[in-house]
Amino acid sequence: MKSARAQNTLLASLGFLMILLVWQSLLWVFDLPPFLVPPPIKVVTRALELGTNWWPHIWATVYSTILGFIIATLGGLSLAILIVHSRIASGIITPPLLLLQIVPKMALAPIVLVWVGLGLASRTIVVVLVTFFPIVISTITGLQSVEPEAIDLARSLHMNRYSILRKIRFPNAMPHIFSGLRVASTLAVIGAIISEFVAAQSGLGYIILSSGFVLDTALQFGALALVTLFGVVFYGLVVLAERIAMPWYIAEVQHIEVMT
Q1: With DSSP H G I counted as helix, E B as strand and the rest as coil, what are the percentages for the chain, rounded to 5?
Q2: Which CATH number is 226's domain given?
Q3: Which domain holds residue 70?
């Protein structure tokens, strides 16, 4: 397994180096101006010029992303449990939830700004709106994927709804839940950047937007690289949490992969 991980890391590194090589090659071939597409070395140099000034912007994006993700996770799990256990709640909640997902979040962000004002609250709400739906849907799918025979057996043993949820439905739903959380972790970063595009005085999205006004493309690319790095790290933390929470499931999946 260690050799497979080392191989994956090597392949990922080669892929990253290939992107840099293609990037620089395109600049040489087409002689693109630096203000349009800066060379990689200029991006690094420009990013280093900001030094410690990056930290307030990084923290603003990271904090709103994580806070919104946690709120969406807790709210999504609770709402999914309610929908699964109540047909009335399902009929009432599901249609508005679907309509909310269809509405473009970029269009909702200015409205949220008008309602709650400029600051952490508006950015967090946008993150919640972006990440809420996949968590709810994946949890509902997982909770409903239990074999009916298992539920009938539990009821024959006089287990109440809470016991069935805790001992049967929820453990069975965990792979689905973490699938939704992995998707939501990437969407959370996107939601944070969207909110900073609309109205913010700090954050990596704010840097990307404000540097574009003065054609500081190198700084834009640097901020974009940091956003991407944060997204990868955040996704990796969710995957790590999945491995800790479900070691039996991860071992089974890895065994199947080895066999195939």
Answers
A1: 85, 0, 15
A2: 1.10.3720.10
A3: 58-259
